[in-house]
From TrEMBL:
GO terms for molecular function: structural molecule activity. The gene is Cldn1. This is Claudin. It comes from the Eukaryota. It comes from Oceanodroma tethys (Wedge-rumped storm-petrel). The keyword Magnesium does not apply.
Length: 211
């Protein structure tokens, strides 16, 4: 029962992490315009994401523009896109695999060892998906921080971390933690001992001695 509860907890955490990765990928707030120093512009807020850039007016109206061409984007942004999409696809595969190995499901009930191995395999894929999302968000955040502290970057073009980065970091952590819990349901190997050899029974004595 304890392993079943840990398995269910791991699946829920990994599923929430996967949903968070999807939300983070779709959000345009990967970085937001900084208002540090002399850059005091309160009329609008500028955001940039993986797919579009947005400007929110003081009235609350938001205008977004999708990036025109994929080839015109920076290679680092394209790599971040690829990693996040790969994390989503890996999470989808891990979702189906781990569901097959859940103890509460009736699939593959005839072979419990293979069933538990499927859950472990799904957990491993969840961990890989979380690592991909963590690398993508950390890489993007590092670029934002380096540009912010670069003295050659104009003050009015500096950006800070957006909310999508924090959601991505939390989602990646949940996916990896849930995958680790699923891996804890790995079946233990049973030590096989050689069959004991029985001693031959003494023949019953007939009371007759033969020479």
């Amino acid at each position: 029962m304890a392993s079943g509860g840990l398995q269910l907890l791991g699946f829920v955490l990994a599923f929430l992490g996967w949903i968070g990765i999807i939300i983070s990928t779709a959000m345009p707030q990967w970085k937001m315009a900084s208002y540090a120093g002399d850059n005091i512009v309160t009329a609008q807020a500028l955001y940039e994401g993986l797919w579009m850039s947005c400007a929110m007016q003081s009235t609350g109206q938001i205008q977004c523009k999708v990036y025109d061409s994929l080839l015109k984007l920076e290679s680092s942004l394209q790599a971040t896109r690829a990693l996040m999409v790969a994390a989503i696809l890996l999470g989808l595969v891990a979702l189906f695999v781990s569901v097959t190995g859940m103890k509460c499901m009736k699939c593959m009930e005839d072979d419990q060892v293979k069933k538990m191995r499927m859950a472990v395999f799904g957990g491993v894929i969840f961990i890989i998906a979380g690592l991909a999302a963590l690398v993508a968000t950390s890489w993007y955040g590092n670029r934002v921080a380096r540009a912010f502290y670069d003295p050659f970057t104009p003050v009015n073009t500096r950006f800070e971390f957006g909310s999508a980065l924090f959601i991505g970091w939390a989602a990646a952590s949940l996916a990896m933690l849930g995958g680790a819990f699923l891996c804890c349901s790995c079946p233990r190997r049973e030590t096989s001992y050689p069959p004991t050899r029985g001693y031959p029974k003494n023949a019953p004595s007939t009371g007759k001695d033969y020479v």
